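COMPLEX REQUEST
Ligand: phenylalanine
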Amino acid sequence: MPIELKKQVIDILKILKNKNTDVLASKLSKELDIDYIVLMSAINDLIAHDLAGFRESEINQVTLTEEGMSYLKKGLPERQLLNIFVEKDIKEIEMDDLLKSSNLPRPIFYVGITNMKKNRWIAQSKASGENKIFLMTESFPKTDLEQFLSKFHDDSIMDYGSLSIEETTNLDILNKRKLIKRMSKTQRVIYLTEKGKKIKLSDIKELKQVSKLTAEMLSSGEWSTVSLKPFDITIPGPTLKAGKIHPVINLINQIREIFISMGFTEIRGPVIESAFFNFDALFQPQDHPARELQDTFYLNIPKVAKLPAKDRVLAVKATHENGGDSNSTGWGYNWDENIAKQTVLRTHTTATTIRRLAEYYNNNDTPPIKVFCIDRVFRNERVDKSHLAEFTQVEGIVIDDNANLGDLIGLLSEFYRKMGFKKIVTRPGFFPYTEPSMEVSVYYDKLGQWLEMGGSGIFRPEVTYPWGIKEPTRVLAWGQGLERIAMLYYEREDIRDLYINPIKWLRNQSY
Ligand code: PHE
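STATUS: Structure written out below.
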C-alpha cells in the first residue's frame, strides 16, 4: 500500500530530506514559520509511517533578569559611573557628589563603586578628610565580564552547557550579582529514519483529507477524490477554564463536613481580639513570651478592647494572682487589666473557643457542647516557603461531664481517620492552658512519615472555672494549622503557593 500523507507533511519531509541532518524542532518551526504544535503533529504523522523520529534532551539555559537586561542596554553600574568621569572629564570627585550625579539607587551605586575598584579604575581616599574617589587610568577597555554580558545580544537567552571555564566564571559572577536566572528546557531533535532517508517523494501519495463536505465539492464532483478525516474520539476536548472553588476552601469544606458529621457546630469569632481572650483567659501570664511584639500583632486602632462583665474579669484576674476558686495557686503576680485590654490580631482560634466558654456561662448552657472553628489567625512571622504571617487554624472543643483523656484520644483518632490518616500517636506536650497536654502526630502513608499535626489537651481549671465550668464538667480541646495539611494534600512545596495562586496549578485542580 502506498504511503499517503497530507501535503504539509510531505513538504516537511522534503525539507528534512534536503537538510540531510538532524534539526532542532524549535528552530525548524521558526524557520518554516509554522506553529510548533502543528510541526510536531506533522512529525507524528511521519513517525506513524516510520519515516522520522525525535529525541528529547534537557538543555540548560540562562536568561538575563530585568536588572541584567537593563545593564545590557545601559552598561553595568560600574560602567555607568565611569561614564560620568569620562563625559565630564573628572579626575577626582567626592563620593556623595558622584552618588548624586549618578541617579543610581544607593545599593546599586555601591555595587558600582566596588566593581570600579575591582577593575582598578578608581581608588578611594579619605586622607583629606573628605571621602574622595580618584580615577586611576586613562583607558577603560571592556572588561571580560562586560564582553561576556554583551554576548546575550537582545535575545536574552544563552545555553550554558558548552561554556569555557572563563565564560563559566563570568556566568557565576553575573549569577552572584543576580543579573541572570538559570532555567532548563526540554528540546526535541528531529531526525529521519533509514526508511525516511531512502523513500522517494514520488512514492508518496498526497492525502486529500477534509473534515466536511461542502456543496461545492458535491456539485463539482471533487467529493469523490477526497477522504474524510476520521474523528479521533480519544482527543480530549478543550480545557474549560471556568471559575472554581479554591483548593484551600475545598479543604476547609471537607474538614467542616468532618466536624459536622461528628456532631459539632461551627463557631466564628472576631479577628481583632482582646489580649484578654487571646491570652489572659487562657491562663497565659502577662509576661509570657508568646505575647511579645515579635510574635503578636498589636493594634493601634482600636487601641483598647471591651472586656466581659466585671465579675468575670475579676475571676480571670484571680486565677492569675492566686488561682481564684480553681484550687490553683495561680502565677502569683499583680494582674493588670490594661494589658488585658490591648487589642491584637487573634494569634490562635483558641481565643474563639474561649469566647464560647464565656457564652456558655452567659447562656447557662448545659453539656454536652461540641463546637469547632476554622478561621484566620495572625502571627508576626517572617514569610518563607514554610511560614505565613496569616494562616488558618482548625480547632475543636467538647464540653462534657467526666470527659477524659481517653475520650480526647478517641475524638482525635476519629477526626484524623476521617481526614485520611489511619494511624495517630500522641505524646505529652505543653500549653499554658491545658493539663494534660498532648502533641498529635499522624502517619502519612504517601510519604511514609510521621507528621506533627498540632496540640490538644484538657483545659485547666484556671481556664474553665471563671466560666462556671467546674468538675465534673471538663473541656477537651485540640487545634492545628490548616495550610500544612493543604501543602501535603496538594503536594505544594511552597506554602505561599496557596495564596499566590499559581494559575497552572489551580487550573489542574478538580472542581
Ligand atoms: N492553640 C494551640 C496552637 O496555636 C493549639 C491548641 C489548641 C493546643 C487547643 C491545645 C488545645 O498551636
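REMARKS: The chain has three domains: 1-57+174-235, 66-173, 249-270+348-507. The first strand starts at residue 3 and ends at 5.
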